[in-house]
Amino acid sequence: MQEPEITPELIEAHGLKRDEYDRILQIIGREPSFTELGIFSAMWNEHCSYKSSKKWLRTLPTTGPQVICGPGENAGIVDIGDGQAVVFKMESHNHPSYIEPYQGAATGVGGILRDVFTMGARPVATLNSLSFGAPDHPRTRALVHGVVAGIGGYGNCFGVPCVGGEVRFDPAYNGNCLVNAFAAGIADTDGIFYSAASGVGMPVVYLGAKTGRDGVGGATMASAEFDETIEEKRPTVQVGDPFTEKRLMEACLELMTTGAVIAIQDMGAAGLTCSAVEMGDKGGLGVRLDLDRVPQREEAMTAYEMMLSESQERMLMVLRPEKEAEARAIFEKWDLDFAIVGETLPDDRFLIMHGNEVKADLPLSTLSGSAPEYDRPWVEPVPAEPLDAETVPAIDPIDGLRALISSANYCSRQWVWEQYDTMVMADTARTPGLGAGIVRVHGTDKLLAFTSDVTPRYVQANPEEGGKQAVAEAFRNLSAVGAQPMAATDNLNFGNPEKPEIMGQLVAAIRGIGAACTALDMPIVSGNVSLYNETDGSAILPTPTIGAVGLIRDPEQAITGTAREGHVALMVGECSGHLGQSALLAEVFNRIEGAAPPVDLEAERRNGDFIREHAEWIRACTDISDGGLALAAFELAEAAGVGVEIETADMGQLFGEDQARYLVACNFDQAEALMGAAAQAGVPIASVGRFGGDTVRIGNAEAPLAELSEVFRSGFGAIFG
Q1: pLDDT of residue 220
Q2: Is the residue at 632 inside a domain?
Q3: 47 is catalytic
């Protein structure tokens, strides 16, 4: 088959700038072949090379005594004691999910699961953070249905529980939804596998499903803005098969016990290209691939298509040759392909053969190590001006609460998570619905807590404070269930980094994330950057999602109870009545204005430590964030099926979103003990009401709990069902 001529138009179609192409010419000393152009395009795009963000990502804290493996591998690894580790990562599948919602979301789940079990861990939990356009936008309903069905369809069939997440709506996502998928698994610390190849002449083995044309160019597509040609990009979305992935996981985990694996790498973005290059580059070796040996499910596939296909459920492995027969038998037992497709080379070379022809012959290290790295121009964001509280009209507190709990952003997500299997594997200790999800570490007394958090309107108003707040809220959600926060993963979703104002958002948000992770001892151990989330020049809200993991060593320290009749409601932390960028302002008055709430990291740490240290006195707890005290009190009451009375009628005290706060439910004796301990520790604490009865009373206003509960629980289905 005749390969196309390399033209300026073809270079541009591959997402390469003219100076980048000139750099390629300088590296190889000649014009690249079509396949070589595709390989450079795949490895040098934003999605794979992080060329706009690397400089700033290096400033994040990534180490600590608990960290076994930080960024750079398929997932991060944190020691949880007793010879065990938790392996986790969050990654985006934004562009594919907007183009083809079901498969885009499904393969996002599949990809993040492979990142975890590639390292020798059995997945035990997933989360997802979803951002959609306005509820009344013509595409939103279809996107919500497709994405939720895709997440559930893949995760449920694979057999891993979804234990939490978040869903938000804003017109800024009308042209570009966000699907951020998180997965975590458990591994033995002496059974972790990495991707660095070693040994010359070692067999390179293709594992899993056959290669097709789905997903060709997917990584390049994910590194560009959307425009009117969006429908033409549908073929770049991968197609997933969760049952094949389940077999692939079992085969890989079985194979890993045999000592056959030297290195192993998931075929994710850019497929064969990226997996082979990463294994070779990390091991300082070259790689030769013979594409005639690659298992294919379509006729007459070209070298270009095979190298750039993102067909799912595939792995690449460097194998100990003496173990070939044993390894092959395992994959044949699981009815999966096992093919030796190449070998490691002593020199710095990426050699691709097809039909006895050389289709690519490149210096391998330049594909990864010599990828462009930009210090893009950026402007320091100007924080939004403080809100004039006098301009916020008075509102009946119950009317304000009703407006929040009936909105798409703050009603119950029951409609969503009921479509996910939350109990498979029988180790889920807390299902979605209120704060962090919790999973038992099978066969031990330990529990792991998981959360994902970000408030994009805060980041828009002040990227640095918004970045801090995302980490702080994750810290609070873990602390609120009694978990010691261990580490975090980030998924940084922004617009076009070539615009200085967007690049400034990214820089400032990373600065805030870094400060908070340092102060709260939550290093970033893995993550993903998703840029160019724009359509026709209109960017999403800056959305740096933080996924975090916490450890509960003693199940007696877990805070998983519910409020009861007669419980005292205590607020830990101080409230100044900060209404800027609040949910009340946005949902009730349709105003997005004011300064983001400031984040006091010292107070965050002090108050979180206090909650965890006194967990035995706390029956139920939630952090106070969006919607303030009023929404937090209602959610605790509604989850328990009891009423609540909040004494204040002050709107700022009820709906303000000051940070570093928790709402605690406990009996009277425990409340007295907590208040005494707080006084000694210098932690602000106050009684704000009580739980009981069958009404929600705020100040002098009240409504039946049953009526508000119906509004809360039926809202999402009423809008999207």
Answers
A1: 52
A2: yes
A3: yes
